[in-house]
Design brief:
With 469 residues, the chain is an alpha+beta fold. It contains 16 helices and 20 strands. The chain folds into three domains: 144 residues, no CATH class; 232 residues, Malonyl-Coenzyme A Acyl Carrier Protein, domain 2, CATH 3.40.366; 64 residues, Malonyl-CoA ACP transacylase, ACP-binding (Alpha-Beta Plaits). The strands form six sheets. Strands 1, 2, 3, 7, 8 and 9 form a six-stranded antiparallel beta sheet that branches. The two termini are 36 Å apart.
């Protein structure tokens, strides 16, 4: 469909018309067609990762709307349709029965979202004999579809939280020195862990900070300290100012704490347990991880499969930009390094890690985390989290728990997660916490997106200065 053209599909039997795109989005007028042939649809649409489907709706009413228009966020055309629908006879205005579907294309253009809605369908109340398909994986309708924040460019923003490897002695120190909100986070973590982890974070020694059981809660503490300062100093509110959150490996716990799924203290205890369990799962020296640079995920997975030879070797992190990390038994990972060099890898090297994370050898740790998470009351996060193992958003607490347990032995699908968010309209990613590792990865995956890192007092000042009044 040509940009700048608003295409109207009229009632059945009338010719298709075209007219110049109206500048005001609110001028869109959907036309209705009572056409049973158009109602029997396959599962259609995907909005925030949830799919809507029709089944057996012979009395349904179908709205056909095709157009290309730029909106600040996905919700704008949805709100327009919502305003239009109640005025029409025989249309059920109930928001959880409106499905955007068949094809919704998002393109980031100049920090705006270009939306191409090819089909919008609305069903009548089910008392007419029709029914909605609500089978698992299909027919899941968001009851809160209409209440997402729509101010400014907020819905084109995602916040991401770093994982292990980003830690360094002194991280977060300037935050604690300048902001009470940050110091309160470090105090809360110290109390939860019954020790002075903050001293290790600020002063070292390095080898103590690098221990997995310390590095994981430490990185979360720095991320949440920075996040709390954003809330206090910049007036930032996640629910209204962001579309998604995501975290790399342990960063998922930081993201969930930021989104209110559990408390900072609970996150600290869970990550201490996670770090200890992951370290104990495999005796030192029996596992390894290696970075394969210059191979895409499928090629790297093939290398891992060939190298396994009866042992464990699998793709652990799909970081994007031709960077894949494999994990497993030491001998198998060493074989993978050599095979990768013959398959076109630019570099293939063992990583200095203490255990083979995100592979089947971590199953004992996954079992520990299943038990630990069962003892925590997890709430629905204020915004969807794009889960590592799904590369799609979740908000249901039970599904979050399953994803966190699966993550221990599963692949961190970071490339797909960023691609999903970019495809859903995110144009700005902010990395909250230590370092800029994720920012670098994101630039290689979503090259049109802007990135920013917020881990120091100076970063907070820059973020605050750049916020739209």
């Amino acid at each position: 469909m040509e940009p700048g053209v608003y295409r109207v599909f009229c009632r059945k039997g009338k010719a298709k018309q075209r007219c110049t795109l109206l500048r005001s989005a609110r001028a869109i007028r959907p036309l209705y067609s009572v056409c049973p042939a158009l109602v029997a649809l396959k599962p259609i649409g995907q909005l925030y990762g949830e799919v809507g489907a029709f089944a057996d709706l012979p009395c349904g009413v179908t709205v056909l709307l095709g157009q290309t228009q730029s909106f600040e966020c996905l919700e704008e055309p949805v709100q327009i349709l919502r305003q239009e629908l109640p005025a029409k006879d025989r249309i059920d205005p109930c928001p959880n029965k409106l499905i955007l579907g068949n094809r919704v294309v998002h393109r980031a253009l100049a920090r705006r979202i270009q939306l191409e809605i090819i089909l919008t369908s609305v069903c009548r109340k089910v008392t007419g004999g029709g029914k909605l398909d609500r089978t698992a994986g299909e027919g899941v309708f968001r009851p809160d579809l209409w209440v997402r924040g729509t101010s400014g460019h907020s819905m084109s923003v995602a916040f991401v939280f770093p994982g292990q490897g980003s830690q360094f002695v002194g991280m977060g120190k300037s935050l604690a020195a300048n902001f009470t909100a940050a110091q309160d986070v470090f105090d809360e973590v110290d109390t939860a862990l019954d020790g002075k982890l903050s001293t290790v974070i600020f002063e070292g020694p390095t080898d103590t900070l690098m221990l997995t059981e310390n590095a994981q809660p430490a990185l979360m503490a720095v991320s949440l300290a920075a996040f709390r300062v954003l809330e206090q100093e910049a007036g930032f509110r996640l629910k209204s100012d962001a579309q998604f959150v995501a975290g790399h490996s342990l960063g998922e716990y930081s993201a969930l704490a930021a989104a209110g799924a559990f408390t900072i203290a609970e996150a600290a205890r869970l990550l201490r347990t996670r770090g200890q369990a992951m370290q104990k799962a495999v005796p030192v020296g029996e596992g390894a991880m290696a970075a394969l640079i210059g191979l895409e995920f499928d090629a790297a997975s093939a290398v891992a499969s060939q190298a396994a030879q009866g042992e464990v070797c699998q793709a652990a992190n799909d970081n994007g930009g031709g960077q894949v990390v494999v994990s497993g038994s030491k001998r198998a990972v060493e074989r993978a390094v050599e095979i990768a060099k013959t398959r076109g890898a630019k570099r293939a090297m063992l990583l200095p890690v203490s255990a083979p994370f995100h592979c089947a050898l971590m199953q004992p740790a996954a079992d520990v985390m299943a038990e630990a998470l069962a003892n925590v009351s997890i709430k629905a996060p204020s915004v969807p989290i794009v889960a590592n193992v799904l590369a799609s958003p979740v908000q249901d607490p039970a599904q979050i728990v399953r994803a966190l347990v699966a993550q221990v032995t599963g692949t961190v699908r970071w490339r797909e997660s960023i691609a999903y968010m970019a495809g859903a309209g995110v144009t700005s990613f902010y990395e909250v916490g230590a370092g800029k590792v994720l920012s670098g990865l994101i630039k290689r995956i979503a090259d049109r997106a802007t990135t920013g890192a917020i881990g120091s007092a100076e970063d907070v000042a820059s973020f605050k200065a750049g916020r739209t009044p």
